[in-house]
Queue: 2 jobs
Job 1
Amino acid sequence: MGCKRSWNVALGLGNPAASGQVKDYLKIIQEEQARVHLVPKQAKPIFLTKVKATVGYIGGRLSMSSVAGDLANLVAQEVKWLRDYSGFVFNHTFGKTLRGGKRRSNMFVVKRCVDKVICPVVGLQDFVSGCKDLGVDLSCGYLFRVVTEDARVLDQPVSYSVVYDRLRVYLRKLGVDEGEIPHSFRAGCAVALAMSGSVSEVGQIMRHVGWFGEGSAEYYSRLPALVESDFVAGRLATSMKDAGMMEEKYRECMQYDSLDSAFVESE
């Protein structure tokens, strides 16, 4: 229903979000928010330092034979090697921003990192190897799958709530929870791309993280974009050494809400 771009009032068919009433109501709400100086809330970025700590925690849990069902909606057929085997090519054909779009897909490259702990290529290879050892066939179907309470692996995609809940568990266990959500990985990646000098236009960031609207990319990067995905991924893979600096600079300069008010005394 939500895929269509029009709403037929008489027949009650199409996309309700496209109706004139909804658009008028949204405009009124936006004007009210502007009058009281409310700005849209965005996902809090999660940075590489925190991702590395989380990966280390997960690795420790796995070494104690505590296998978690942390799953994502990705099909095995959508992952390919680069020709030189320096990384993976992902081609997402279904998702929130892809759903219903004709021939729309999000293709991006992930390259090897010097830091093996946080390297997504090494991590994915280890995951696939572990699945083979358990007798799970990943040649087709979902790459990350649902595990039932009786330890059966189903070829079904995980829900957003499962990913959300598991992420919060890890962050709380580590004592670093600041309200991050799964979308925070995209936000953090956008900040890292912008601050590592990997991109020069918003279009690059949009393509790499899978945004089809400029709003989020501009919010997190604060600059415009467009470069070959392979080049972008290569620069991102080498940025781990500057992860601490990028996070510190973001907190210092880019978090508008954390700055002191110019005219209102803080309590």
Note: Residues 1-38 form one domain.
Job 2
Amino acid sequence: MDEADADPDSDSRAGAEADGDAAESHGGEGNGPPVDLDPERREERTAAFYDALESVGRPVATAGEVARRTELSHDAADDLLAALPEANRLDVSNDPVVWYPEDLETLTDRERVVVFPDRREVVVDQPDQYTLAQLSGFARLVTTSGEGSYIYEVRDSDVWAAPHEDLGELIAAMRSVLGRWERLEEWVRAQYERTRKFRLRTDGDDEDEGEGYTVLEAASEDLMGNVARRKLDDGLVRGLISDTEAWVVEGEEAAVKRQLYDAGYPVRDDRRLDEGDDLSLDLELELRDYQRDWVDRFTERGAGVLVGPPGSGKTVAAMGVMAAIEGETLVLVPSRELAGQWHDELLSKTSLSPGEVGEYHGGTKEMAPVTIATYQTAGMDRHRELFDARRWGLIVYDEVQHVPAPIARRSAELQSKSRLG
């Protein structure tokens, strides 16, 4: 029997000495939490082991390094490692005991998230579906290597359009995949607050029917005087109602929203718009429970964004929303290919007839109760009057995160009762 085998505690003591005051920083030997070898905790402890390897930048780690990562005492971390089947022990002469993973491929295939807060960029490698779904809720995909690496950018427009109930929910979603980055979160908070500075509302005797007049409301007198009055072209606002309210000229609502958006202030649209023309359709398949929940939440709010990983059935859920809204629908997509896919899916999964579904883009131009158009075409001035003339009950924005901001902004000016992203 070797000396090391005869005295199992000698390696732990050597590791503690080599790691300096690691044990002291956690309250001294034996003061950390006891080792929990419950199977339900094993996955968590295994993940902490791999996290420790990544944090030290090499495929081996001492018990002291694992202790710092897991907030266990040195001795408890040593016992934990000995109990993990994923961790192998290596005795190195005159050095502390080090531990390495049983399967090195697991280390290379693990998800990595690197944040560049000043550039507001996120690089992810081998992300799981949860991470991709969360990122799509507050960032735009810039590029992908095709081999599991992605680069995302957090833009002001991404924060403005984030599908979260409030700022706290948005920050929580960010932290769930990025961790805490104070400078980035401060910037996000500032951008989020801009979405609360201006809003459009309907006033007048017939406001419930959408027949009143439109009012632009600012959060402060300074915003109305130094932003709205200075940034808006003449002829868009008729006059002041109060220091924070102004009448909007009928038909100029979209221009008001566009110009304030360009000035860095997205406008909340709380007007009571027309319902749009009726369109009865049935969804010819059963929604999954979470898809039904998406539909129910959307119909309660009248607007929203479906956030889910690829393959989770967002397109089918959008069809469920169409069936619930029962109004003529405009579906906006980035490309002709996606327009064709939507066309085929609608005919195969709903009760719509071929005459009720049309495509409008560079290849074909058919207006119908359900029209599928590309963002590029819908945003062109020469086609705008045609799209504006229709009373859409719903506009669906598909994969808007992949569309250049100027094009997405022009299409966002189209009016509808409800909007789904």
Note: Residues 111-194 form one domain.
